[in-house]
Amino acid sequence: MKILGIDTSCDDTSAAVIEGSSTILSNIVSSQTDIHKKYGGIVPELASRMHMEMISHVVKEALDQAQADLSLIDAIAVCKGPGLIGSLLVGCGFAKSLGYAAGIPVVGVNHLEGHIFAPFLESEPEFPFISLIASGGHTSLYQVNSFGNYEELGRTRDDAAGEAYDKIAKMMGLGYPGGPVIDRLAAEGDSRAFNFPRAYVPESFDFSFSGLKTSVRRMLQTIVPDGDTRKIPERTMRDLAASFQASVVDVLVRKVEWVIAKRGIGRVVLTGGVSANNELRKRMQLMADERNAKLWLPSLKLCTDNAAMIAAAGYHHFMAGDIAGLDLNPKAYLPL
Question: Is the alpha carbon torsion for 166, 171, 176, 178 positive or negative?
């Protein structure tokens, strides 16, 4: 059985073909970073237009690399939300049109569900497990009991972790995207140089990063009152990055540790774009080892948005008979 996956939830156009539930035959991602970096963030209208321009080429390349034509595809899995509505409309419209023309059933997949099942493309996490999804749009904790059985334990009350990285990078004049460059700078900085707050949100598994952003902004105003970040010494920039990153990582790791203790589940899956962060991966593994817990970390190429994870979740929807009709419409806000 072969599943064609399509993901246009944000700014990357992606298509993939998997065999069964986990064998990746192709996983093509067309990035729009060069287009959006001049604006310091994603411009939704530009993103949707680029999806329209690229999607047919990306799908064709995925099929060619998998050495499969449409006659070999058993189902098309498409991301139906959450995400940027203009971008989602392109993917869903293309998937429905292709499915109708080729007589291939279509299944709709929640983007968060795709992230949860990304590690299944490389290993087999055991149910139930705790899943931390940390990305540019989401920071959420779930207890995953089985496919389709998800219990939300906590979510961000304001900004997502990845969004905080991008906005802090913009404040520091580091450009877009912010995650990779802050991670690189932080590796050479002193995380104790600046005492930024940790919003643990007592008695809750929720997250909050807006106060941290404000704290970093005020510190930058103290260092360079005129706002010219080019005047900040390189050593200070590294220390700022390390101190900011330590605040984010401390909260993410501590929350997962609390869930392990309260729920008694020693299995953790870390997913989403922020899960590619080197410090987070290292610290989460250390915590898991101390707790005698098992941690699943997807490879870096499966952390960020990709269609293979959509196809992996779509396989289970297809096997369950959860077929979408032509009335499938995406939703920008779509809880799991």
Answer: negative
